[in-house]
UniProtKB/TrEMBL annotation, chain A:
Name of the protein in question: Oxidoreductase
InterPro entries hit by this protein: Cbr1-like_FAD-bd_dom, FAD-bd_FR_type, FNR_nucleotide-bd, MRET, OxRdtase_FAD/NAD-bd, Riboflavin_synthase-like_b-brl
SUPFAM superfamilies: Ferredoxin reductase-like, C-terminal NADP-linked domain, Riboflavin synthase domain-like
Pfam name, any one: FAD_binding_6
GO molecular function, one term: oxidoreductase activity
Domain (FAD-binding FR-type): residue spans on this chain: 1-95
UniProtKB/TrEMBL annotation, chain B:
UniProt family annotation: Belongs to the methylthiotransferase family. MtaB subfamily.
Entry function: Catalyzes the methylthiolation of N6-threonylcarbamoyladenosine (t(6)A), leading to the formation of 2-methylthio-N6-threonylcarbamoyladenosine (ms(2)t(6)A) at position 37 in tRNAs that read codons beginning with adenine.
Enzyme class (EC, first level): transferase
Protein known as: Threonylcarbamoyladenosine tRNA methylthiotransferase MtaB
Cofactor: [4Fe-4S] cluster
E.C. number(s) listed in UniProt: 2.8.4.5
Naturally occurring in which organism (per UniProt): Ancylomarina euxinus
Lineage of the species this protein comes from: Bacteria, Pseudomonadati, Bacteroidota, Bacteroidia, Marinilabiliales
Length: 214, 426
């Protein structure tokens, strides 16, 4: 476990923020997560790494959870505070031999876009489509950082995105071609349903292709 | 001669580590005695995977202290990592030895008797520095190939007590196998925390297994517990190797995809079934055994029924079923809809009944077949051991020898004795 100083906090919505920390000699594979906690505290939580492999800082994207312990506390941290970082962990990662010559579909809900942000910013040349499911448009975290032709915003609470409804409804209406490599990240129910839909559309999903947050 | 007694709880890896430690003491003129007799040194190699294992570990600590108040009492294993402070505050315990110091137990005890009081933190940390287990308690020789786990399943405390995954050197493992086989081991058991994730330099798990299978000698290879995500077709192909035993303990945990997702397991029911089907197409009587957790948070009646149905469908040869218990610091501790204890107990009874039926059904198919039994214990003319499918077999014969293979024709199954097979020497 290593101590990392907070460089800055970027508030994206009233409840969602990005913590930027010093990177030091930390290394990871894009898609992996860290566990994060205040220096010396036993309360730690998992957070996907939001920044790219080549960035000289480390970032996580966090949404404050109602009645949540750490997501609330972390929101209050200030530049100069010290956080304990452990990792990198996890097998949610791209295959080297697929990055350049395959077509990707990234399906995420809420902060589940975090490792996808890291994928895309680590490998901007990738041929991808990104599906981001949220309730309201203000949760389209830093959507301007993706190629607008590749980014599809699904809003379920209002008709302000590119598609009005859940990502699963989008997938049902817009089948994915079977030669696409799909990665799913977010809540368990979305992943469970999307998995089923994609399988029926002929997509093969291995263990590295899903990341469940809660 | 000083006497030493061990009590081992939990997994095979703990068992291996105890065997290896016991051998080191025996080779250095200590006498190994039963845990329920008086000893100069008691070692409790504890487990913390469930509440029950914590409870048992505490019970054995008290028992050891009652037997000999002046003994040196050492607690090691996963509880020593997880409840270090609590254990260090108990006066009757002399040393609390965390997993990464465990292999240095002998030097700790030796130092103690020489009057040099060492703190465990001064000991060498080496996860693989265990001696050979030739004088241990088992005919099967366990070989540790890795330690720790990076999977972070939401119910599991192992990553925080065993640490990150670390693999032992490829050559050291092969040397270890060669040496136990040269010393007469007839069955080699590959063990670790998450062995499917073995990775050393460019060698993966299947490369290691292939290399072990290709070693000379009259031995058979058994894989201990395996996660269903850690291997591919190359490994499945190796299961047909003549030295490989037709048995895998493949940890399912739940028969419901929704529950598996919340457990953050790395496979789904379909891939699990595919694996079992692929193997059984080649070898229909292949023995799959498994673990199932009952009452994981938010486990619905349907999800529970899915687990029961999986047992029937997969015809497991044995199911290690345990009720979910909250482990502090894990994600599942914070999950909503924890299942009430009463419901867990009811489900547990139902599932155990189904598992029992599945076991008997699976084992009954061996009546009329031959098993190659490695004899472990002999009592007069009665021998007991395990066949290649890892099913206990008993038979009668004269001039029996331990640690020897016998071909036995299976005649009956004893339901009251947990499905023990009875046979006759061919
Ligand atoms: C591999 C992995 C990566 C993750 N990456 C991220 C990430 O990049 N960004 C991020 O914001 N979170 C991420 N999470 C979730 C994160 O670890 C915490 O669970 C979350 O921040 C809540 O922690 P807390 O201490 O505030 O809430 P807790 O005190 O742990 O929980 C309070 C309650 O909220 C529920 N809950 C927990 N998480 C959520 C959630 N995400 N949404 C709604 N309810 C929830 C719990 O079931 C509990 O009932 C990830 C989780 C995993 C397993």
């Amino acid at each position: 476990m290593n101590s990392h100083k907070v460089i800055s906090i970027r508030n994206l919505t009233p409840s969602t923020y990005v913590i930027r920390m010093e990177k030091k000699d930390f290394t990871f594979k894009t898609g992996q997560y860290i566990t994060l906690g205040f220096s010396g505290s036993i309360d730690r939580r998992e957070y996907s790494i939001y920044s790219a492999e080549q960035d000289d800082y480390l970032e996580v994207l966090i949404k404050e959870v109602e009645d949540g312990l750490l997501s609330k506390k972390l929101k209050k941290c200030k530049p100069g505070d010290v956080l304990d970082v452990d990792g990198a962990f996890g097998h949610f990662s791209l295959k080297e031999d697929e990055i350049k010559n395959k077509k990707f579909m990234f399906i995420s809900t809420g902060t589940g876009i975090s490792p996808i942000h890291s994928f895309i910013h680590t490998h901007p040349e990738m041929d991808y489509t990104l599906l981001h499911g949220i309730r309201h448009k203000n949760e389209a975290y830093e959507s301007e950082s993706y190629d607008p032709n590749r980014y599809i915003l699904c809003t379920s609470g209002e008709n302000t995105g590119d598609f009005n409804g859940r990502v699963t409804e989008y997938l049902l209406k817009n089948p994915v071609s079977p030669d696409t490599i799909c990665y799913l990240c977010g809540n368990c129910h979305m992943i469970y349903e999307a998995y089923d839909i994609l399988e029926k559309q002929g997509i093969k999903l291995g263990p590295i292709h899903t990341e469940v947050y809660f | 001669m000083k006497t030493i007694a061990f009590k081992t709880l939990g997994c095979r890896l703990n068992q291996y580590e105890t065997d290896a430690l016991a051998s080191t003491f025996q080779n250095n003129d200590y006498k190994l005695v039963d845990f329920d007799t008086e000893a100069d040194i008691y070692v409790i190699n504890s487990c913390t995977v469930t509440h029950q294992s914590d409870h048992k570990s505490r019970h054995f600590i008290s028992q050891a202290n009652r037997r000999n108040k002046d003994s040196v009492l050492v607690v090691t294993g996963c509880m020593a990592n997880n409840a270090k402070e609590e254990l260090e505050n108990r006066d009757e315990i002399n040393y609390v030895l965390e997993n990464d110091n465990k292999s240095a137990l002998f030097s700790l005890v030796e130092a103690h008797f020489k009057g040099e009081l060492k703190h465990p933190s001064q000991l060498d940390k080496d996860l693989f520095a265990y001696g050979a287990t030739e004088k241990g308690f088992h005919t099967r020789s366990m070989i540790k190939i890795q330690d720790g786990c990076d999977n972070f399943c939401t119910f599991c405390i192992i990553p925080s007590v065993r640490g990150r995954a670390k693999s032992r050197s490829f050559e050291a493992i092969l040397d270890n196998v060669r040496s136990v086989v040269d010393n007469g081991a007839k069955e080699v058991v590959i063990t670790g925390v998450n062995i499917g994730r073995y990775e050393f330099e460019h060698y993966k798990f299947d490369d290691l297994i292939e290399a072990i299978l290709n070693l000379d000698g009259d031995f058979r290879l058994r894989i201990s517990s395996l996660e269903p995500d850690g291997f591919g077709d190359k490994f499945l192909g190796l299961l047909s190797h003549p030295k490989m035993t037709p048995h895998l303990h493949l940890c399912l945990q739940s028969g419901s995809d929704e529950v598996l997702l919340r457990m953050r397991r790395m496979y789904n029911i379909k891939t699990f079934k595919n694996t079992v089907e692929k193997v059984r197409t080649i070898r229909p009587d292949f023995n799959f055994t498994t673990d199932i957790i009952i009452g994981f948070p938010d486990e619905s009646e349907t999800a529970f029924t899915d687990s029961c149905d999986m047992i029937k469908d997969m015809e497991f040869g044995h199911v290690h079923a345990f009720k979910y218990s909250i482990r502090k610091g894990t994600r599942a501790e914070r999950m909503e809809n924890q299942v009430p204890e009463k419901v867990k107990t009811e489900r547990s009874e139902v599932l155990r009944g189904i598992a029992e039926e599945s076991k008997l059904k699976y084992r009954s198919q061996f009546i009329g077949q031959t098993q190659r039994v490695l004899v472990e214990t002999i009592n007069g003319n009665t021998a007991k051991g395990y066949g290649e499918h890892y099913i206990p077999v008993q038979f009668e014969a004269e001039d029996l020898k331990e640690n020897t293979f016998y071909n036995v024709s299976i005649k009956a199954i004893v339901e009251e004795k947990d499905g023990l097979l009875l046979g006759e020497l061919i």
